[in-house]
């Protein structure tokens, strides 16, 4: 049996819509991107969504839109994909890591306030694996110190906590449509905001900072454009959007299947000795992006990496989300980080294994994964 770590959910409807775009005259940012943006804004109950080329681009643009740059500090988590902290470096600012909660792996809100300095301008929480951070507390701290909150919601379009959706309490939220995310166009991203001025600024910033898009030039009478600010080349195109429009309509259906698989994994694996599961926050809706187990120390004489290898040998696709950012070579070298700086993130990073979790995963495949895990940690 070979069980892929991930398989996307692009179907005939999505392909047909994309082919339609390819037969049309307009390939770049246009009406299909607009359709995706209004669909995403409606799904999240926010006024504005802006399509970009990646979540990394989304995070970078948000920092620029709020004027964050050299000399500024942004508080974030070390337990994420490097894109989170890299976006802060792209903006010329400095990422300031604080450690995570042992149960969920999310940024520990209690550690944020002590890390605030005169240079702190923003907090960038990551809703890890699809579970929202404590946004109420993060918003409280942000208001107290006049900080911007930019949510990295790459794992978490569908999440809800304390009755609040992603992007509601943050000033901005950033989403990814990368190849293995909950909905995907291979590469792609989006930003949601509440503020009309920021929406307009971000639309300029995603396209060089020019004040008219190609669609404006195409659909309206020609008018000269100007470039009031310096932006980047991060605009989503109609081809990417066409792949996403239908997936967004099915997003809750897709979530339901992942949720069922998540629960099946939880039921089967929580009693297994030697592994721990990521805790879930009661009363919240987990977006179920990733299902992770933790192998603490040695089980059956094996450490995490051996279990990881054994699962692969059984044909089970696996991943590690994540070895902490501060211990990556570049961050060690330029910021002097070392082992022991963020012990909980390091512990999780050394123990975690992600298992296959996607709507096309069949029940018998999930059962095979469960058996493979049990075998790996008992024999
Ligand atoms: C995937 C991911 C990103 C980056 O998304 P891209 O669209 O590939 O730029 C950022 N943060 C987290 C937590 C991610 O998982």
UniProtKB/TrEMBL annotation:
GO terms for biological process: polysaccharide biosynthetic process. SUPFAM superfamilies: PLP-dependent transferases. The keyword Iron does not apply. The modification N6-(pyridoxal phosphate)lysine is found at residue 181. The keyword Transferase applies. It comes from the Bacteria. InterPro entries: DegT/StrS_aminotransferase, PyrdxlP-dep_Trfase, PyrdxlP-dep_Trfase_major, PyrdxlP-dep_Trfase_small. The active site is at 181 (proton acceptor). Keywords: Aminotransferase, Pyridoxal phosphate, Transferase. One of its GO terms (molecular function) is pyridoxal phosphate binding. PANTHER family: DTDP-4-AMINO-4,6-DIDEOXYGALACTOSE TRANSAMINASE, TRANSAMINASE. Belongs to the DegT/DnrJ/EryC1 family. This is DegT/DnrJ/EryC1/StrS family aminotransferase. It comes from Candidatus Nitrobium versatile.
């Amino acid at each position: 049996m070979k069980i892929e770590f991930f398989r996307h959910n692009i179907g005939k409807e999505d392909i047909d819509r994309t082919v339609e775009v390819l037969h049309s005259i307009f390939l770049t940012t246009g009406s299909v991107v607009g359709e995706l943006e209004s669909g995403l804004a409606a799904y999240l109950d926010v006024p504005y969504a802006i399509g970009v080329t990646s979540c990394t681009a989304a995070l970078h643009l948000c920092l620029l839109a709020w004027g964050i740059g050299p000399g500024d500090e942004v508080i974030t988590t070390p337990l994420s994909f490097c894109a989170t902290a890299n976006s802060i470096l792209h903006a010329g600012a400095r990422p300031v890591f604080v450690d995570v909660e042992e149960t969920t792996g999310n940024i520990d809100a209690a550690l944020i306030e002590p890390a605030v300095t005169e240079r702190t301008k923003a907090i960038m929480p990551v809703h890890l694996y699809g579970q929202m951070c404590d946004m109420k507390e993060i918003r409280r701290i942000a208001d107290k110190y006049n900080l911007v909150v930019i949510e990295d919601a790459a794992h978490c379009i569908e999440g809800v906590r304390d009755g609040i959706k992603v992007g509601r309490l943050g000033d901005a939220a950033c989403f990814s449509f990368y190849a293995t995310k909950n909905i995907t166009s291979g590469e792609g991203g989006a930003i949601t905001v509440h503020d009309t001025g920021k929406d307009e600024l971000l639309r300029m910033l995603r396209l060089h900072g020019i004040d008219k898009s190609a669609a404006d030039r195409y659909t309206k009478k020609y008018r000269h454009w100007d470039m009031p600010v310096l932006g980047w080349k991060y605009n989503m195109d109609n081809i990417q959007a066409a792949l996403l429009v239908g997936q967004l309509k099915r997003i809750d259906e897709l979530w339901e299947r992942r949720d069922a698989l998540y629960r099946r994994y939880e039921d089967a694996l929580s009693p297994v000795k030697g592994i721990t599961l990521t805790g879930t926050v009661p009363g919240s809706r987990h977006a179920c992006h990733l299902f992770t187990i933790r192998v603490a120390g040695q089980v059956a004489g094996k450490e995490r990496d051996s279990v990881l290898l054994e699962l692969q040998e059984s044909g089970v696709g696996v991943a590690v989300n994540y070895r902490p950012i501060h211990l990556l070579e570049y961050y060690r070298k330029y910021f002097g980080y070392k082992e022991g700086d963020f012990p909980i993130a390091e512990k999780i990073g050394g123990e975690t294994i992600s298992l296959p979790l996607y709507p096309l995963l069949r029940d018998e495949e999930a059962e095979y994964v469960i058996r493979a895990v049990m075998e790996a940690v008992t024999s």
